[in-house]
Every structure is written in structure tokens, then in C-alpha cells.
Amino acid sequence: MYQEFTVPDDQEILDALGEWPEVDEGGSARLLKLPGGEDGDVLLSYDSLSQSVRVRWINPAGEQILDLFREGATKMSVTTTANSTSIALEFRLGEHNGEINIQISPHLAITDRILFV
Q1: How far apart are CA 15 and CA 88, in angstroms?
Q2: Sign of the alpha-carbon torsion through 73, 70, 107, 11
Q3: Opening angle at CA 45, ends 39 and 46, nearest 5
């Protein structure tokens, strides 16, 4: 069953993260570079039309230490509090539900969960 991938608009992302999503050459994908200071950077690309998400964590030396790709994305949300900033990505694909949570501050942390439903 098809479920729409809802994402915050570009202005909401700018307001919450201080970063404006770049537009991919094809026009439907967005790319965010999220600086994590001494933890490195996270590159988040998401495409609401194809319902796909890619999360790459690059350490300060420029080496890729994590590369996640998921399809079946249904929701992206950004949460900012006085103590932390994070992005939650929710997925549904067949009999599986999942979530990737990217904590941007106070330090980078990425969790990925996939469950049978």
C-alpha cells in the first residue's frame, strides 16, 4: 500500500537547522549537509517522490563511516529543543516499520531500527 512521504518544507528546515536543503539536479531530491563539529558531518538526502532517504556520516578526516539507504519513507520531522536538535525519519515497507533518528546536537548520534509488524 502506497503511503505519502511527508517532509517539512525547505523554510521549516532552514528555521530549525540553519541549513537550506540543496536541490538535486533531477529536481525532486533534497540534500542537507549537517555539520557536527568534531564528530564530522552528516549528509542527508531525501526524495519525497521516490520515498527514499540516504544518510552518510563523514568523519573529520573526510572518511565515510556510515552509509544508510532506505526506501518506503513515510515521514520526516525535525525537533529542536534548548538541549538538542534531531531529525526523525519513519519508514513502512511491506511487513516492516522503521525509524532512523539523527541527533545533530549536542553531538552526532544515529540510530536505526527496523521491526516486523
Answers
A1: 16
A2: negative
A3: 135
